[in-house]
Specification:
The protein is α+β, with helices and mostly antiparallel strands and 90 residues long. Helix content is 18%, strand content 22%.
Length: 90
């Protein structure tokens, strides 16, 4: 079950393939500003992003000095899932 309107994913995938783009990087910053991301193969874009892309929540629980911020759910390794915004798929 999708958590957002997935109707734009297949056309976006087709456009990227037509432009010979092979990989899309989904990026976000952790608490200390380090760039994190996931690479998604364009030929699997609609399928992969349609279900959401998992990010490890623990990157949001590390302090700038390497300490650990205690928060609920920190022990689950892939507990953060992201979905593309409608604007980012245009």
């Amino acid at each position: 079950m999708a958590h957002f309107d997935t109707s734009g994913l297949a056309p976006a995938q087709q456009r990227l393939e037509a432009d010979d783009i092979d990989v899309v990087r989904l990026g976000y910053a952790d608490l200390i500003g380090v760039d994190r991301g996931r690479d998604v193969l364009v030929n699997h874009l609609a399928r992969t992003m349609g279900g959401g892309v998992a990010f490890c929540r623990s990157v949001f629980g590390t302090t700038p000095r390497g300490g650990v911020v205690d928060f609920e759910g920190a022990c689950r390794p892939a507990s953060r899932t992201s979905w593309p915004s409608p604007i980012s798929t245009r």
